[in-house]
Amino acid sequence: MALDKNTFKKAYENKYKDIHGDEIENGNNLQRYEALGSLIRDYVSWLWLDTNKRYNKTGEKQIYYFSMEFLLGRLLGDTLMNLGLIDICKEALAELNIDLRDLEELEEDQGLGNGGLGRLAACFLDSMASLGIAGHGCGIRYKYGFFEQKIIDGKQVELSDNWLRQGNVWERRKIEKSEVVKFGGEVKVENIDGRIVFTQINYEPVLAVPYDTPIVGYENNVANTLRLWSAETVSNEFDYSSFSSGEYLKAIEYKNSVESISQVLYPEDSFYEGKILRLKQQYFFVSAGIQSIIRHYKAHGGNIKFLDEKISIHINDTHPTLAIPELMRILLDEEGLGWEEAWRITTNIVSYTNHTILAEALEKWPIDMFKGLLPRIYMIVEEINERFCSDLWNKYIGQWEKISDMAIIADGQVRMANLAVVGSHSVNGVAKLHTEILKKEEMKNLYYFYPNKFNNKTNGITHRRWLLRSNPGLTNLLCNTIGDSFIKHPTDLINFEKFTYDKGVQEELERIKKKNKERLAEKIYKKNGIIVDTSSIFDVQVKRIHGYKRQTLNCLRIMDLYNKLTNNPNLDIHPRTFIFAGKAAPGYYLAKNIIELINAIADKVNNDPLVNKKIKVVFLENYNVSLAEEIIPAADLSEQISTTTKEASGTSNMKFMMNGAITIATLDGANIEISDEVGNNNIFIFGLTARQVLSYIENGGYSSQDIYNKNESIKNVIDDLINGKYSKDREKFRSIYDHLTIFNDEFYVLKDFDSYVETNKKVDSIFKDMYKWQEICGINIAHSGVFSSDRTIQQYATGIWGPELIYKNL
Ligand SMILES: *Cc1c(COP(=O)(O)O)cnc(C)c1O
C-alpha cells in the first residue's frame, strides 16, 4: 500500500479525534489501539471491496474452508505487515511518542479454537490470501472463546474468555446477510403434481447473523473473508402477547436458549462428547454457511447445475460434515434437482481432512438425538446410507462384518467420519504416517472401496506470522545472508544451508537466540517470579496437555534428573530450563493432574539450592497464540514426544524448527518429514516405531509393571509420585501413578523412558559445542521452508480444489 509517513500520521490523528472526540495526548493506550485498528480497518475496507468486485467479475472458483475453530490470535501486527505498512506505522506513531508494540499488546487474542486444528485453519486463511486464492473461512462467532487458564496453588482454574469485552475492530456485522436455520419439528411429505415434496414444519427458527473479518494477503492487494455466524432469535423484539399473558421471563429464557448456540467454544481437543448443543452448533454454522454461499452464487447469475465448477467446500475434520446432507437438502428440496445429479454436485464440491485416529475423538451421534433435532437431514443421511450399503452388498456379498464397519448408520448411531468419506471426493490425512495409518488401519475398508479418494497433505504453518513477525532478529539475518526471496518463496530458505557452516553466522544465530531467550526470561520473571539462566538450554514443551502428548514422560525424566543431581550435585550436565505451557480440558482429570505435577516439580526443584543452579522448571499459564509467538523463538530444544502413531501431524514442531530450535522427537506425525528433511544427524530421534506400537495394540505383550520391577530409575520416580516427595498429600498424583502402573501405561511412557534419557545426554554433549549446535539450528531453519502452509495450500489447490487456482497465480 502506497502511503507516506506524514499522510499516515495525519490520518491517524484525525481518526483518533473522530472516534474519541479528544486529543491523542489525553487518551490512554487502549484508545490509541482502537483508533489505529479502526484506521487500518478503513484501509482494508477498500481492498476488501475491490477483491470482492474482482471475484464477482472473474467468476473464479471460490473455496470455502468450513471449520468449527479458527485460532487467529492477534490481527493488528500481521495485517500491518501484509499491507506493507508496518514501518510507516511504527515511525508515524514514534513521532507521536507511541510505541506500536505497546498498542499491539492491548489486542485480545481471537482464541476461537483449542489448538493445532484451529491454528491450522488460521494459517490456511493467511496462505490462501497470500497466494491470491479466493479462499474464505466459515465458522462460529463464539461469544466466549477458549477459556483463560489461571494457575492457583499449582492447579488449573478456568475463567471465561470474554474476548469481545472491549469490542472487536476487525469484524463487521452484516445483519442484511442473515440466514434462518431450522431445528426440530416434523417433515411433511406431499405428492404435488407427481413430485414428492418435503417440507419441514413446526420447526424452531434461529437467525444466523454473519460477522465478517477481512483476511489480508501479503503485499498482493487481496482481502478474503472469514465469515463467523452468531445465533439470534428471529425477531429481536419481545413478543408482546407473551408480555401480556405474563410470560415475559419465558421470552427471555427463549432468547437465551437460542443465543446459547454460539455462546461458547467446547474446550475439548481430540475428544468428543455427544452433547446436543454441539450438534446444534455444527448444523447452525454449516446450514447458514451453505445457504449464504448458494444465495450469493445465484444472485450473481450462477446456474445451480454448474455449482460444482464454481465452488469448493473443504471440511476441517468431521465437525462440519453436515455440509454434505445440507447441500443435498438444498439441491433436492429447494432447487428441485434429482438425487443423482444432486449427489454428483455435492460430492464434487466437498472434500474432507481427517485429523486424528484417536478413538475417543471420533464423532458419532445417537440416532434419536440426530433425528429429533434434524428430521429432514436425517432422512437424507438415511438415504445416502441405504444407497451406499446397497453398493456394498453388491460388491461384498455376504460380508456383513465389513459392510457394517463401513456403514454410515449402525449400532444406533450416525458415524460422521463414514459420512464424510462417502460424501466427498477427497479424503486427506495431515502427514505421511497419519495418511498411511488411515489407509491401512483406521479406514482400511473405506480405503479399499475408494482408493482414489485418499491422499496426503502434510500440514504447514504460515512463515509470515511464525518467522517474519515473531522473530525479526532471525528474519534480518536471513535477509542479510540470502536476500528476501524466501518471503515469497519460503523454500528459498534452503540457500541458508551453506551459511550455516560459517562461524560468523553461527555466532550471529547464537546472539539472536540469546536475545530472544532474554526477552522470555524477563517474561518468566514477571509472570512466575523465577529467575532463569539464559545460558542454560531452554527445553520447551508447549501444547495441549494430553495423555498421548506425554508431558508425563517429560516430567518423569526431570524427576529422574533431580534424583541423580541430589545424589551427585557435581553431575556433569549443562544447565537446563524446562519450560511448559498448555491447557487441559476442564473435564480431563488426568491432564489436570499432570499440570499439578509439573507445578509441584517446579516448586521442589526451583527451591532446592542443591540443584537449582543447574535445573529450573517453569509452567507459563494461559498458553495461546501470542504466548506461543514469544516462547517459540526463544527455544533451544523442541519437545515432540507423543506416543508414536497418535499425533496426526503436529504443527508446533514446524514452528520451532523454523525458529532454529533442534527437535527431540519420536518418529510420529510430521516429525518423520522433519527428520527426512534435515537428516538423522540434525534431529534427536528416540522411542518406539509405529510398527512396534501397532503391534502392541494388536497383539498385546506390553507390561509396564515388568519395566517398573526391573528398572531402578523408573521405579524410583514412579514411587516418588506417591511417597510424599512432591506433595504432602500422597494421594495427589495417584491417578498418574495408577495410569502408569495398574492401568498398564496406555501411552508407553515407561517403555520409551530409557531411550529418552539417553537421547537427552546426546543433546547435552552437542550443546556444549556452541558452534556445532548453531550449525544444526541453521540446517533446521534452511530446511523449514517446505513446512510453510503456502506449500500445503498449493497442494490442496492443485490436488483437491482445482489446479486452475494455482496456475493463474504463476
Ligand atoms: C501451534 C499451536 C498449537 C499446536 O501445537 P502442537 O504442539 O502441534 O499440538 C496449539 N496451540 C497454539 C496456541 C499454537 O500456536
From TrEMBL:
Modified residues (N6-(pyridoxal phosphate)lysine): K655
Superkingdom, taxonomy of origin: Bacteria
Keywords attached to this entry: Allosteric enzyme, Carbohydrate metabolism, Cytoplasm, Glycosyltransferase, Pyridoxal phosphate, Transferase
Cellular compartments annotated: Cytoplasm
Main subcellular location: cytoplasm
InterPro entries: Glycg_phsphrylas, Glyco_trans_35, Pyridoxal_P_attach_site
Short name of one Pfam family: Phosphorylase
Reactions listed under catalytic activity: [(1->4)-alpha-D-glucosyl](n) + phosphate = [(1->4)-alpha-D-glucosyl](n-1) + alpha-D-glucose 1-phosphate
Cofactors, names only: pyridoxal 5'-phosphate
SUPFAM superfamilies per the UniProt record, alphabetical: UDP-Glycosyltransferase/glycogen phosphorylase
Annotated GO CC locations: cytoplasm
Cytoplasm in keyword set: yes
GO molecular function: glycogen phosphorylase activity; pyridoxal phosphate binding
GO BP terms: glycogen catabolic process
UniProt-listed Gene3D superfamilies: Glycogen Phosphorylase B (3.40.50.2000)
EC number: 2.4.1.1
Annotated family: Belongs to the glycogen phosphorylase family.
Described function: Allosteric enzyme that catalyzes the rate-limiting step in glycogen catabolism, the phosphorolytic cleavage of glycogen to produce glucose-1-phosphate, and plays a central role in maintaining cellular and organismal glucose homeostasis.
UniProt cross-references to NCBIfam families, sorted A to Z: P_ylase (TIGR02093)
Name of the molecule in the record: Alpha-1,4 glucan phosphorylase
Organism of provenance: Clostridium paraputrificum
